[in-house]
TrEMBL record:
<dbReference type="GO" id="GO:0005886">
    <property type="term" value="C:plasma membrane"/>
</dbReference>
<dbReference type="InterPro" id="IPR003593">
    <property type="entry name" value="AAA+_ATPase"/>
</dbReference>
<keyword id="KW-0813">Transport</keyword>
<dbReference type="InterPro" id="IPR015854">
    <property type="entry name" value="ABC_transpr_LolD-like"/>
</dbReference>
<feature type="domain" description="ABC transporter">
    <location>
        <begin position="6"/>
        <end position="234"/>
    </location>
</feature>
<keyword id="KW-0547">Nucleotide-binding</keyword>
<dbReference type="InterPro" id="IPR003439">
    <property type="entry name" value="ABC_transporter-like_ATP-bd"/>
</dbReference>
<dbReference type="GO" id="GO:0016887">
    <property type="term" value="F:ATP hydrolysis activity"/>
</dbReference>
<dbReference type="InterPro" id="IPR017871">
    <property type="entry name" value="ABC_transporter-like_CS"/>
</dbReference>
<dbReference type="Pfam" id="PF00005">
    <property type="entry name" value="ABC_tran"/>
</dbReference>
<dbReference type="InterPro" id="IPR017911">
    <property type="entry name" value="MacB-like_ATP-bd"/>
</dbReference>
<dbReference type="InterPro" id="IPR027417">
    <property type="entry name" value="P-loop_NTPase"/>
</dbReference>
<dbReference type="GO" id="GO:0005524">
    <property type="term" value="F:ATP binding"/>
</dbReference>
<protein>
    <submittedName>
        <fullName>Methionine ABC transporter ATP-binding protein</fullName>
    </submittedName>
</protein>
<keyword id="KW-0067">ATP-binding</keyword>
<dbReference type="GO" id="GO:0022857">
    <property type="term" value="F:transmembrane transporter activity"/>
</dbReference>
Length: 234
C-alpha cells in the first residue's frame, strides 16, 4: 500500500467559542503524492480542516498524523519548524510581504528552513537558482523579480506565492482557494503549473475550492460534507 501523507482517525475539532464541533471526521487518508481537491460550501469547515493539517490548530480529540508525525505532540516551536520544513501553504490572500521584492519573498521560505536549503543542496541547487527556475516556470517575467510584490497583478502575486510555497520541495502543499480571483483561462493555467511542479517532486497537494469544475485537474475530490459528520453549519 502506498505511504500515507495524511492519516486521521476520529478527528474532532470545536472552536473554543462554539458549543458544537465544526468537524467530526471518522477517517481521513491521503497518500503521498496524491493531488486532492477539497470541496465544500461556505462555512462547512474547509479552512478549519486546513488549519489542523498545517498544525495551526490541534484536533480536540482523535489522531491526525502528517508525514508520520502527530503534530499535537510537538510543542509550538517544533510545530512551527515542522511547518516551515515540510509544508508549503498558499493562502487565499497570498500573504506576500508587500514591500519586499518578488525574489526575496520566494527566498524567505528557505531563510526559515535549513531543511529546505539542505534538500536543494543535495541536488546541487542554490536557493537562488531554484527561485529563478520556479519564477521562470511560473511565468513571472525577469524584469519583475526585483519589484516590490505589492506592485504585481493579482494573478502574478498568486504565482509568486506558489513559488514561495514550492521552493525547497516541501512534502505537502496546502492551498486555500488561491484561484478565486482568476478568470477561467488564468485559473486553468495556474493549476497546470502548480500540478506540474507537484508531480515532478512527488509533492502531496491539498487544494481547497468551492468550484466543482476544477475537479478534472486532481486525482481525487473529497467532499467535506460527505466525510464530516457534523453537517453544514452555514
Ligand atoms: N477563528 C474562529 N473562531 C471561531 N469560529 C470559527 C473560526 N473560524 C471559523 N469558525 C467557524 O467554523 C465554521 C467553519 O468555518 P471555515 O472558515 O472553516 O469554513 P470554510 O468552509 O472554509 O468557509 P469559506 O468557504 O466561506 O471560507 C464556521 O461556522 C465558522 O464560523
Amino acid at each position: 500500500m502506498a505511504e500515507l501523507c495524511i492519516a486521521g482517525q476520529q478527528i474532532e475539532f470545536c472552536w473554543p467559542s462554539q458549543s458544537q464541533p465544526t468537524l467530526r471526521i471518522p477517517e481521513l487518508s491521503i497518500r503521498t503524492g496524491e493531488r486532492i481537491l477539497l470541496r465544500g460550501p461556505s462555512g462547512s469547515g474547509k479552512s478549519t480542516l486546513l488549519s489542523l493539517l498545517a498544525g495551526v490548530n490541534q484536533p480536540t480529540s482523535g489522531t491526525l498524523t502528517i508525514l508520520g508525525t502527530e503534530l499535537h505532540r510537538l510543542n509550538q516551536r517544533r510545530r512551527d519548524k515542522f511547518r516551515a520544513d515540510h509544508i508549503g501553504y498558499i493562502f487565499q490572500q497570498f500573504n506576500l510581504l508587500p514591500y519586499l521584492s518578488v525574489y526575496r519573498n520566494v527566498l524567505l521560505a528557505c531563510d526559515f528552513s535549513a531543511a529546505r536549503k539542505q534538500k536543494l543542496a543535495a541536488e546541487n541547487l542554490s536557493p537562488e537558482a531554484e527561485c529563478e527556475r520556479l519564477l521562470t516556470h511560473l511565468n513571472i517575467p525577469k524584469e519583475l523579480w526585483r519589484r516590490q510584490a505589492a506592485t504585481l497583478s493579482v494573478g502574478q502575486q498568486q504565482r509568486v506565492a506558489v513559488a514561495r510555497a514550492l521552493i525547497g520541495k516541501p512534502e505537502l502543499i496546502i492551498a486555500d482557494e488561491p484561484t478565486s480571483a482568476l478568470d477561467t483561462d488564468a485559473r486553468d493555467n495556474f493549476l497546470s503549473l502548480l500540478q506540474d511542479e507537484c508531480q515532478s517532486a512527488n509533492i502531496t497537494l491539498v487544494f481547497v475550492t468551492h468550484d466543482a469544475t476544477l475537479s478534472h485537474h486532481f486525482d481525487r475530490t473529497i467532499e467535506l460534507t460527505e466525510i464530516n459528520q457534523t453537517g453544514v453549519s452555514a
